[in-house]
Every structure is written in C-alpha cells, then in structure tokens.
Amino acid sequence: MPAIVDKIAEALHLKHHEDSSASTAAPQTPVFDHEKVKVFFVLGGPGAGKGTQCANLVKDFGFCHLSAGDLLRAEQNREGSEYGELIRKYIREGQIVPMEITIKLLENAMRAELAKPHDTEGWEDGKGRFLIDGFPRKMDQALKFDEDVCLSTMVLFFTTTEEEMLKRLLERAKTSGREDDNEESIRKRFRVYKEQTMPVIEHYSKEGKVATIDASATIEDVHKKAQEIVAKILAGEVGRNITA
Fold it and tell me: Is 78 a known ligand-binding residue?
C-alpha cells in the first residue's frame, strides 16, 4: 500500500482487524467465506437507478445494501476525519478514491452487519447477503476485493442510455445537495465510467457472472426484472451470464 494511502487508512481507522479470523488466514485468503456470504456487485452508469433498485431488492430478499459512494461521503463528513477534504476532492472531480480506502470501508461495514442479529432468510448460521452499489469501478478494485474480502457471487448490471442518465441526474440535482450532481461533474463521471468501469463488466462477463438488466423502463418494470433474476441466482438456477 503506498505510504500516503497507508496514512489515510490509518487515520480513517481502516487498518486490518487483528482478530482470530484474519490473523490465522493464509495470505490472500478472503476475510469472508463466499459460500456463506453472498456479494452482489451492483453496477451501471451514474443515474442508471442502482440505488432505487437496491432498495427494492433489500425488501424482497433481506439484503444489506452498501453504497461505496455513501460510505465515502459519510467518511468525508465525519467529524475529525483528517482526510475528509481529500476524499471530497476526488468525488468533486469525478475521480476514483484510492481503492484501499473504499475496500476497507466496505469490509468494516460488512463485518459490522454480520455481527448484528438477523431473523431473515440468508442470515442464519453466519451467513449474509450484500448488495454493493457502485463498486467495483476499476479492475484493480474488483480483483483486490475478490482476493482480500470476499469472492463475489454475481454482478447486477443496470444499463440505459447516457441521455437518460443525464436527464435523471439533473432532475435529482434539484434536491440531492450532492456536490457532484452538476452537469460538468456528471459528464466527467460518464467518461470515467466508460474508461474504467466497463472493463470490469467485461471481466466478470468472461467469468459468466453478469446479469444485464435494461434500466430504461419504469422503476416498477425494472424491479420486476431484477427480482426475477435475483430469485433465480439465490436458488442456484443461474450460473452464467443472463439478460433481462
């Protein structure tokens, strides 16, 4: 880990937990067992409706929804965060925050959720279900998360046109209060998405782990498609790429 990123991680209290499960693991052994902990990456361009559909799937299947962007925004606003301004700069410029920070935030959030009592399906006997929204955005993030944290189960890829995404984001900007919800930042995010995130989709597609969902329709129609696909994946009926 580069020195500056190491310092940031330490300041953010993101150093690896020295508990028994981590300290006894062999190098490169993920923190969580993918047979018990199911991780669905939720990807799509800015404004594709990822957050909305995640909220629906949480209700349907008892997932814990983790948004990488929300975790970073919370950290940048956390009182006493020495590097909050640095994270803010990355987000404002539409750039990707150093992956070590994002991955540790996700790992810590997963660990905290798994420690809570749950009475819903998929959480018994140390099991868990996670929707990770807006991550991974680069190949190195994808590989490091799979190797160090938990091997992912599937990618839910919500796709629509750039014109539709821009329209949705500009509408959201009226009430969101987000620094990056302006046309200049949005267009930067589109460029970064095309250059860095699409190769992630191609990588997982080669592994047969991408469920492509057309997000151009109404929220209800997209939800129905996503619901049907996730139900099949959790039932073990899908082990390849699928399109809806």
Answer: no
Coarse DSSP helix, strand, coil percentages of the chain, rounded to the nearest 5 percent: 50, 15, 35
At residue 3 the predicted structure's pLDDT band, cuts being 50, 70 and 90, is: low
Amino acid residing at 89: K
* Three-state secondary structure call for residue 115: coil
What percentage of the chain reaches a pLDDT higher than 70? 89
Residue 96 marked ligand-binding: yes
Q: Is 120 annotated as a binding residue?
A: no
Note the pTM of the prediction, 2 decimals.
0.80
Predicted confidence (pLDDT) per residue in 31-46, tens digit: 999 999 999 999 988 8
DSSP states along 46-95: TTSSHHHHHHHHHHHH-PEEEEHHHHHHHHHTSTT-TTHHHHHHHHHTTP
pLDDT, one tens digit per residue, over 53-87 is 999 999 999 999 999 888 988 888 888 877 788 88
Q: Are 73 and 184 in contact (CB under 8 A)?
A: no
Torsion of CA 212, 217, 219, 225, to 10 degrees: -40
CA pair distance 219, 56, nearest whole angstrom: 10
Q: Are 150 and 110 within 8 A, CB to CB?
A: yes
Annotated ligand binding at 239? The verdict is no
